[in-house]
Amino acid sequence: MNPVNYLYLASLLFTIGAAGVLIRRNAIVVFMCVELMLNACNLALVAFSRMHGNLDGQIIAFFTMVVAAAEVVVGLAIIVSLFRSRHSASVDDASLMKL
Amino acid sequence: MENLIALLVAAPLLGAAVLLCGGRRLDRAGHRLGTLLAAASFVIGAVLFFDMLGRGAEERALHQHLFSWVPVESFRADIAFQLDQLSMTFVLLITGVGTLIHVYSIGYMEHDERRRRFFGYLNLFLAAMLLLVLADNYLLLYFGWEGVGLASYLLIGFWQHKPSAATAAKKAFLVNRVGDMGLSIAIMLMFTTFGTFAFGPVLAAAGETGEGMLTAIGLMLLLAACGKSAQVPLQSWLGDAMEGPTPVSALIHAATMVTAGVYLITRSGAIFNAAPDAQLAVVVVGAVTLLFGAIVGCAKDDIKKALAGSTMSQIGYMILAAGLGPIGYAFAIMHLVTHGFFKAGLFLGAGSVMHGMNDEVDMRKYGGLRKYMPVTFVTFGLGYLAIIGFPGLSGFWSKDKIIEAAFAKGGTEGWILGAVTLLGAGITAYYMTRVMIMTFFGEKRWQPAPDADAVPSAEPAAEDHAGRMPHPHESPKSMTVPMILLAFGSVFAGGLFSLNSAFVHWLEPVTAFEHGHPPIGAAAVTASTVVVLLIGVGIAYAQYGRKPVPVVAPRGSLLTRAARRDLLQDDFNHVVLVRGGEHLTRSLVYMDHTLVDGVVNGTAASVGGLSGRLRKLQNGFARSYAVSMFGGTAVLIAATLLMRGV
């Protein structure tokens, strides 16, 4: 199968993720969309790795996974404590930092 | 031998340091220590002088390098001395006359409780002036120059409990600052032009430099000379400086301070020779001041202020001679030395008269003093004959030469300068005769001192006579002996100097000399000088000798009234400089408020307004920030791709 198709899939997934981040209000959904974007990147990296015939892309994909795992831990902790204090998971409610 | 040069300065400097830091325990011996150290400096000077005479004319200059003050790359500020014939002349004048004035002050300041401090300041004055004339570069000269300014400030304001003295001291200091600015600019110009400010290289290179730069340096040096030597337009401090004790006036007018300007111009002769425009300015300043001082001297009733006017006028002669170039330098210095003798003598005489007259300075309240103060009368009289240029006495030899040199300048210029100097000689004869007659001849016009408060209590023996008629008496020996010695100088110095043109040959290696030929012949010049002199004396005798002198000054003509107010110099300064300065500062403040503050405040307000609008972008919604990040990233990537495409 042509590896370029994986790239089309990756950009589709990235676009869905980015749109989700920009449009959705629920913090959990925004968070999942971020993950979607990260994984779209991973897919693109692995596809490029295959196309160019070296392993650099795959190694970076592993890095991304590790970072994403760490990010999930921190991000979920923030969302949980936000929900506890304000009884809402809407990102628009958390707008106290504006002037 | 050259190691002695530093001692010349060190002796009085040590005296100043010990006397000013020593405290009250030195009160009893302080004056002796100060006088001794001044005399020591004179003895060292005399030793160096005889040593110098023993060498050939070209090898007489001595140099002593103490240390490098600020050695930075090519910038070298050295503490180094140079003793050549010109410096030697000044050293002997300063230390000689200075020592005599020290001796005189022992008697004059006897009852002043701050006498120790007075002697400390006198020593400081001598040290600064010696540093000025011994320096081998302009920067060290500037150091001495400022030291002289400081010492004169301290001494003019010595009786600082009198507001007038404190003001006079400040005035002298401030007016001198204007001149000092000129000297510092001149030194900076020298450094940028020649890369050094040592006398040797600067004066040697002066011939090969552009005339424009030399004219600028020359004019700045002239400004400096005007400040220190009280020349128009910076002359206004000299009359007020009479607030100081009389020995100070003698020191300022004879040995130190006002001679510094003449020294500076003569020392920088090579610069002026190569810059005719600057030289012309020097001559003009000299000629104007000569007449200015003389006219002021004619109208003053205060004996010291009349003498101050006369100093201004005589220094004008010297500056004029120095502006004539090589035909005049030697005569400028010669007149300076003879003037040092007779002016010191006249001032000490005036101090002696005041000492005997309850510190009265108004000559209209003197009269007939010759019987009561014979020594003062004779010494003052000899000084008087010397200053008017009576044939045979010191002033005659030096002033006559200057008048000759002025005529020898040539062309219309020469005739004008010659006429001015001749006229000046006539006016000198007039005002000095006036002083002489009003003080020592005629009937007694003594008045009782008004009350004790009006007499400064610090003046010697003031309280004893307050409110009573003065009973004039001869001054003590410590005061009369210096006057007698100075009188000898006033009589014989000029003749000795002129013997085989000894003085001119002595200075020739330093200042160069050209013989000037006046168009009407030297004998005719001398004859006309004597005639003018007799006319001046005659007019003064007709006005003051034949008729009784009124005790209250008559109203006088417009010129007399103007001259009493120093020819409106202070009014001029007030209207032009003070008012002008006020207007200038006011408009500057206005500019500051509107223009500068306007720009600054306007910038601040527009930045504030802009950021107020930008603030609206910070709405606190995480998603709108995400949009801007996304948009920004998209733009960056698009730009990168586009750039790569190109």
UniProtKB/TrEMBL annotation, chain A:
It is found in: Cell membrane; Membrane. It is a multi-pass membrane protein. GO terms for molecular function: NADH dehydrogenase (quinone) (non-electrogenic) activity; quinone binding. Keywords: Cell membrane, Membrane, NAD, Quinone, Translocase, Transmembrane, Transmembrane helix, Transport. The keyword Transmembrane helix applies. It is an enzyme of class 7 (translocase). It catalyses: a quinone + NADH + 5 H(+)(in) = a quinol + NAD(+) + 4 H(+)(out). GO terms for biological process: ATP synthesis coupled electron transport. One of its GO terms (cellular component) is plasma membrane. It holds the Pfam family Oxidored_q2. The chain crosses the membrane at residues 6-23, 28-48, 60-83. Its EC number is 7.1.1.-. InterPro entries: NADH_UbQ_OxRdtase_chain4L/K, NUOK/Mnh_C1-like. NDH-1 is composed of 14 different subunits. Subunits NuoA, H, J, K, L, M, N constitute the membrane sector of the complex. NDH-1 shuttles electrons from NADH, via FMN and iron-sulfur (Fe-S) centers, to quinones in the respiratory chain. The immediate electron acceptor for the enzyme in this species is believed to be a menaquinone. Couples the redox reaction to proton translocation (for every two electrons transferred, four hydrogen ions are translocated across the cytoplasmic membrane), and thus conserves the redox energy in a proton gradient. Belongs to the complex I subunit 4L family. PANTHER family: NADH DEHYDROGENASE SUBUNIT 4L-RELATED, NADH-UBIQUINONE OXIDOREDUCTASE SUBUNIT ND4L. This is NADH-quinone oxidoreductase subunit K. It comes from Streptomyces lavendofoliae. The gene is nuoK2.
Automatic annotation (TrEMBL), chain B:
The lineage of its organism: Bacteria, Bacillati, Actinomycetota, Actinomycetes, Kitasatosporales. This is NADH-quinone oxidoreductase subunit L. GO terms for cellular component: endomembrane system; membrane. Keywords: Membrane, Transmembrane, Transmembrane helix. Residues 135-420 form the NADH:quinone oxidoreductase/Mrp antiporter transmembrane domain. It comes from Streptomyces lavendofoliae. GO terms for biological process: ATP synthesis coupled electron transport; electron transport coupled proton transport. It is found in: Endomembrane system; Membrane. GO terms for molecular function: NADH dehydrogenase (ubiquinone) activity; NADH dehydrogenase activity. PANTHER family: NADH-UBIQUINONE OXIDOREDUCTASE CHAIN 5. The keyword Plastid does not apply.
